[in-house]
Structures are given as C-alpha cells and as structure tokens.
Write a structure and sequence with these properties.
Catalytic activity (chains A, B): L-threonate + NAD(+) = 2-dehydro-L-erythronate + NADH + H(+)
Mean pLDDT of chain A: 96
Organism (chains A, B): Sinorhizobium alkalisoli
CATH architecture of the largest domain in chain A: 3-Layer(aba) Sandwich
Low-confidence stretches of chain A: 1-5
CATH topology of the largest domain in chain A: Rossmann fold
Number of helices of chain A: 13
Family (chains A, B): Belongs to the HIBADH-related family. L-threonate dehydrogenase subfamily.
Radius of gyration of chain A: 21 Å
Function (chains A, B): Catalyzes oxidation of L-threonate to 2-oxo-tetronate. Can use either NAD(+) or NADP(+) as cosubstrate, with a preference for NAD(+).
CATH class of the largest domain in chain A: Alpha Beta
Structural class of chain A: alpha/beta
CATH superfamily of the largest domain in chain A: NAD(P)-binding Rossmann-like Domain
Oligomer: homodimer
Order of helices and strands of chain A: EHEHEHEHEHEEHEHEHHHHHH
GO molecular function (chains A, B): NAD binding; NADP binding; oxidoreductase activity, acting on the CH-OH group of donors, NAD or NADP as acceptor
Largest sheet of chain A: 6 strands, parallel
Strand content of chain A: 5-15%
C-alpha cells in the first residue's frame, strides 16, 4: 500500500460520529476502506476509539490524504462550517477527492455548496440518507444522491459500503436534497397525523391495540403510523428520532415553499405541533411525543410505560 | 323453502344500489341469500335489474320478510330517513331482523339510531365498510363492526358473503363508527399530504415517476400516497372516490372533535383544501384532484392525460 499512489485502499474520512456517522464509519471500515473519524465532541471520539476506530485531532488532519470525505453533520450550517469555516477542509482536501454530504438541507444550499467546492477542483455528492442508526451500522442505508459522474465515481466505494440502495437522481447537486425534502414533508405530516389520530382514539375510549391492528390493515395506514404508534402504545418516548428533527426539517420545507410561492397548509399545521411539543419541553424526546401533546391539549390519558 | 318459516335461505334487502351496494348485493346473491334491492334513483334500479337482480318498488316492499337489511346509503341523514322517515322501514321490518348500517357517520348518531331501533325489538349492527367497488363486488370488503351478540348472529350470513375481514370491535353500536372515523381522519390527511408533496415535487421540476419510486420505498410512504399518486402521474381524475367524500368525512371528524374539545389542526388544514377543491369545481372529481388545486395555487404544471 502506497501513501500517495494509485493502488492503495481508498481512504475515507468521516466528519461527525453521532449515531449515524458512527455506523457509517464502521460499515466502510468493514468493507476494507481505511477510515479516519472526527467529531467536535470528545465523547463521540472516545466511543469511536473504544470500538477500534482511528480518530483525528482536527478537521485538517482527518481529511489529509482522504479520497472520500463523508460529512454526517446535522444541517446546512454545520456542513458549510466543515467546508468553508475557519478550520474548513475545502482547502485541505486532496485534489480530485469527493465530499459526500449527508445532512438534510434546502436544495438551493446544496447546489451552492457544490458549486463553491467544484470551483476548487473537488467533487461534491449531494447524498441525503434515510434509515436509522441500526441500518447505518449494517451498511444498509438508503441514499438519495445526485452529482456529477466524477463525484459518483469517486464516491462509489463509500456508497457501496454504506447503502443497501443508492438512488442516482441526477447529475447536479440539489436534486438529492429535493427528494429528501419531499420525503421529510410526508414523514413529518404523517407522524403528526398518526399522533392526532391515536390520541383522538384514546379520547373516545377505543381499544388502542385494536386501533393499531385495524388501521395498519386499512387505507389509513402509513409507514410512520406503523412505526411510531407502538411507541405511544408502550408509553415509551425514548428518542429514536427527536421532535427537534422535524422542527428543523419541516422548517426547511416551509422556507423552501415560501420562497417558491407554494402553499403548504399541512406542513404548516404539523410544524406548529412540533413547535408546541418542543416549547412544552419535549424537543429532545421521541417525535411520537406529539401524541402526548395532543393528550395534554385535550385531557386525554395515554398508556404509560410499564 | 318456506316463506314464513325457519329453514328458508336468509332473505336480505339492500337499500342503496350505488357502486358499493350493487356489489354487496351481488356478493350476497352469489353466496345463496335471497336478495331484493332498492334505490331511490331509477338508473340504479335499472342497472340492478339488467344484471338479474330483483328490485322492489319502495322501501316497505324491499324489507318485507327480510331477515337482514343492508343499508348502503351515503350518510347519517339518509340512514335516519331510511329507518325513521315518512316511508321509514323501522315499523315494517320483521321482528328479530337486523339492520346493517354501512354509512360513515358520527359514532354518537350510530348509537342513537341503534337505541331507537332496538326499542322496537329489532337489531342494529354498526358496520362501516372499507375497500372499493371492486372488492365489494368480490365479497372482499373490510367491515368494522360493533353491536349486540344478537345483531352479529343475525347479520352473520350477510357479513360472511360481503367481507374478507370482519373486525368485531365491541358489543354496542358507535364503536365501529368511531374506528371508521379514525381511518377516515388518516386517509383524508394522507391524500392531502400526498397531493401537497407531489405537486411540490413538480414545482421543483423533479422527475415525478422517480419521486413515486423513491417515496413508496421510503419512510414517507402511505397507503394513500401509493394508491392516489398514480392518478396524478396519469393526469386521470376520473372519480374513484370523489373530493366530496372527504368534505363530508373530515367534516364529521372536525364536528366530533369540536364537540369533544379535541384539537385537530391537520384535519382542519386538510378539510380546507378539500373545500377549496370543491369550491373550485372539482367536488365530483377524484380526490387526487387536490394535486391540481395545489398546482393551480402555485403555477405548477402536472402531467396531463395522454
């Protein structure tokens, strides 16, 4: 293996070692990539080292010699800081290497970040992810990707390692982000609808287990109803995905829609409920906590944790 | 076969020969019941006769000697008229016979109708249906039923003939209706969300077939997205289920929720869109016409019928 040559295993840097980035780094290491991780928080780095990962002390060290940089940070602001902030990696990345951007963001921002990075002779793959931490750890994510053929080619070893399914949605950045936002629009509204419905069923004294059985077999079903309502039935609001995620994502949808003069009354109604849940102190709890908000607002009793 | 005895095939009357009632009558006849149909509109009766059905001239004739009356009318008002209106059948039904009520309605109204009928020595089965005309014709509906054991026992031959799945949800009327309203809440909101999303995708110039492929494999999926968005992709708004159905059903949910002091912001937002679609002239078109409404309101072009 040569450190500067053509035939070494691809080197990947993972920026952000939260539950998703941690699993994605593991999946890449398992499939033979040489992986270096970095996170701004010491706990995340310590956990990564404890599992046998190699960590860098700072962003610049992390991307040194990397063919692929996978960014698994929270939002557009953090992505921009990673690339172009005071310690940004845009000027440290190896010529011809690719930046794979996972954060959910406004497509216009993804386009802009890509253009700025491409102007420096680097590749940008707009690649939002779907699937939870468990699937990240197994290398079975779904990735909604768009970018230049060169970006796809450079990113391929990482994509193959991280994902069960890669949708190739177009040859410019922004398209992947737009697909992700359509998914988040639906997911966010469906969670709110599921919570509005299950707490309304509780208000009427219906057998909630039976409601779950009937609805999941009927035209009222959604992926989110099926996935989130069991949390409500168990009274367990341990965060698998927090209320604040949809405060952020439906906020992005609403901002995009306002800019495009497109009305989104369902998104607007759902966003208000996420905001109210967060304001009432449930921002870091599971997003099925919307059911508890509806219960509070109507004097309804939901199952409690046994 | 005796006309007044114990051992004849059960006789069933079907009130309302629309697309659902027509199929339900066929299913019962196929399974050996003696079926008489009735509808207030001559066209529906003529179609039923043309297919070999037996039709009555009026409500009283229809239910004469019937062990089972299946009511497949549109709403609570029509159901009440069938039972207790000027030509109502409540006083003409055979003692011990059962009235199977299919219309979607407020559970409180279902309870009240049941109590009034039971006071006359008759049985009432609260039995909203789910599944379209095709499944009605095949005897493969889903029925969400509640009522007394005697009502279930008397209704059994008809339920077996009409449904692939009968949920037995409780021993008093109103519970079946409440389950149906929870389903309609979700179904109505999910159609609106699907249309908000697919037209927003069109506004951004995304490949809508690809959006359908990605979303139906992702966490943003719903039964309604999967079922209704193909109408939008085909530009075909021939009504399989009309906008007006959800003007009615989300209106019932909103009235129930207001009476119970339960806030339903997602239902409220969706209902406004169904009202706007109806007000804009699409009330009798397919409910996926909400996508056309969003398109009109944002200067977006959707696929047109080829």
């Amino acid at each position: 293996m040569s450190l500067n040559g053509e035939n070494h295993d691809p080197r990947a840097a993972v920026i952000g070692l939260g539950s998703m980035g941690f699993g994605m780094a593991q999946s890449m290491a398992r499939s033979g990539l040489e992986v270096v991780g970095y996170d701004i928080t010491e706990n995340a780095v310590a956990r990564f080292l404890a599992e046998g990962g190699r960590a860098a002390q700072n962003l610049t060290d992390a991307v040194e010699g990397a063919d692929i940089v996978v960014s698994v940070v929270v939002n557009a602001q953090q992505t921009e800081a990673v690339l172009f902030g005071p310690d940004g990696i845009a000027r440290a990345m190896k010529p011809g290497s690719v930046f794979i951007s996972s954060a959910t963001m406004d497509p216009a921002v993804a386009r802009s970040l890509a253009q700025r990075l491409e102007a420096l002779g680097l590749h940008y793959l707009d690649a939002p992810i779907s699937g939870g931490a468990a699937r990240a750890a197994k290398g079975e994510l779904t990735i909604m990707a768009s970018g230049s053929p060169q970006a796809f080619a450079a990113a391929r070893p990482a994509l193959d390692a991280m994902a069960a399914k890669v949708y190739e949605l177009g040859d410019v950045s922004g398209i992947g982000a737009a697909f992700k936002m359509i998914n988040q629009l639906l997911a966010g509204v469906h969670i709110a609808a599921a919570c509005e419905a299950i707490s309304f069923a509780a208000k009427q004294g219906l057998d909630l287990q039976k409601v779950y059985e009937v609805i999941t077999a009927s035209a009222g079903n959604s992926w989110m109803f099926e996935n989130r309502v069991p949390h409500v039935l168990a009274g367990d609001y341990t965060p698998l995905s927090a209320i604040e995620i949809f405060v952020k994502d439906l906020g992005i949808v609403q901002d995009m829609a306002r800019a495009e003069r497109y009305p989104v009354p369902l998104v607007a109604a759902a966003l208000q409920m996420y905001l109210a849940a967060s304001g009432a102190g449930m921002g870091r709890d599971d997003d099925s906590s919307l059911a508890r908000l509806y219960a509070q607002l109507s004097g309804t009793t939901l199952p409690s944790k046994s």
